[in-house]
Design a protein that fits this description.
The chain is built from six helices and no strands. By secondary structure, it is mainly alpha-helical.
Amino acid sequence: MASPAVLRLLAVSALLLLCAPTTSASATPSQLVDSIRRATAQGQALQAPAQSITIINGPLIVVDLGPYPLIIAGLTKLNTDLNSSIAAAQGAEPISGSDAKAVADAIREMVRVHQVLLNILIGKAGLFNTVPLIGQPVAAVLRSYEAVIDASLFKLVDLTSAEFAKSITEQKNSLDVSIKAAITAYTNLELLWQ
């Protein structure tokens, strides 16, 4: 399980990638859509482990067993993949027309799927008001996820025409609300014992 320092480093690296020049070819709109769809599929794949969290298997996180380590590893992989996508988008040409619509549509679906995952996690956090050990590692990976999602979507807002940039911004803001609620749910598990 990654430490909070490692997760913060991952989030900072996402932001640094936004500023780093690239010498390789930039991602095409089609490649960006494929990347967003992969992120959607990754979020979908994490829903089953999240649904399987119970009062019995949740505390197994302390011995790196149960569904939480799978979820943390899955979100960490998602963060890494999105960081790669951010890097690939450096220097990309502005996106407009049907390409921008395809990007916006892919983001809309990704946000929908990720909000389902986050809502499951928020609901499951309520099972563990008496188990504070679960909160810290889950909150840490969610904070990293928030930073990477924000960096990714800000980059796509910058690349798309105004019409679709507004839609992407609205989706980003909607997902931010869910991410913040999930972070709060797991941070509150820690606070109950302080």
